[in-house]
Every structure is written in C-alpha cells, then in structure tokens.
# Entry
Amino acid sequence: SQTIHQWPATLVQPVGSPLSLECTVEGTSNPNLYWYRQAAGRGLQLLFYSVGIGQISSEVPQNLSASRPQDRQFILSSKKLLLSDSGFYLCVWTANTEAFFGQGTRLTVV
Amino acid sequence: TQLLEQSPQFLSIQEGENLTVYCNSSSVFSSLQWYRQEPGEGPVLLVTVVTGGEVKKLKRLTFQFGDARKDSSLHITAAQPGDTGLYLCAGATGNQFYFGTGTSLTVIP
# Structure
C-alpha cells in the first residue's frame, strides 16, 4: 500500500540551531514530493517541490533548503533557524489528482 | 506565491445557515480538490473535480468547478457545528500542487 511517513511530529528548537525534517514514501516510485508550511488557521504555503532525485524547485526564497537524496526521501533543512520559521510543516506526495499527507511537524523556534 | 485565493478568510455563522466559500485563481488547473482540516492534523480530502463546469454534491456540501477551470466554490446548506474546521482548496497544474489560502469556518450551535 502507498504510505508517507514524516518525522518528528513535534520539535522545539532554539534560534540559530539547525533543522532536519525527513519524509519518506512507500509503495510508489518516482513520486512528486512537496514541503508546505502552514501558519495557524491559514492555508498551506508551498516551500519546495521535487519531481525526482536531486531535482528541487524552490517557491519561496527563505532560510530553508530541501534535498532529495533518494527517490522516496525528501528532507527539509535549515542551517540556522529563525523565530519566523515556527509553524506546521507538511510533506505531501501527489499521484494523478490525489494528494497524500504526512503526519505533519509542529516546529516551535524559541 | 499564492496561486489560489480563498474568500472569506474567516467565517462565523449560526447553525442552520447556508454559506459559500470561494477559491479563485488566474491560472488554469487540471484538477481541483477541496479539503477539510482539523487543528494539528493533515487535510482530509472532500472532493476532486476535473471537468470545467462540473458540480458535485456530498450530502449538504455542493462543489462547483468553474467553466474555465480557474475557480471553484463550496456551498454548505444548513451548516452544523460538526462542519467547523479549516477548508482548503488545492489545484494541480503540471508538476505543481498548490493549496489555497484557507477559510476558517466556525458554526455556532
């Protein structure tokens, strides 16, 4: 079956510390993968999307970066977190007209 | 860049009232979805529309895809407290998948 895993579920990090969020997909090959960030009560803002290994497109210039070292692995990173990086991060995989969501990561930068 | 703009952003209504949420864009989408999201969880798919002018009904919810496939609407009849949540539209175009800005709905008993 097709599944998507995202971790960690919650994270509290100090300003200036690094970040690594990981997302893996099972049951499919060559998926389109996305990282979104969501502010409280608002829609999802597309941060990065990837159509294949090593192929990353950035939608919003910012303090974050993404990498796709393997076909079914998508990583969101930062070298130095800012307070404004706090939010709810979702990894998403799309197949045809349907989207599959990771569990989400609640990141609080303090 | 937010390709999909939703309105209204916030909506608070009494139980039994009707409401409509709009999702607008200047871009054409091959398909458009509507999701409902609870706090701290991922969105849950409500419906997918793929044909311009398509209308789909899901109990008290009616979804319409614009003729030009650039916009959509969600109409809820006789809203109930259980309808409370964040409603998101999402559109697929090429390899990109965009979500709307969201509409936070509160239905007061």
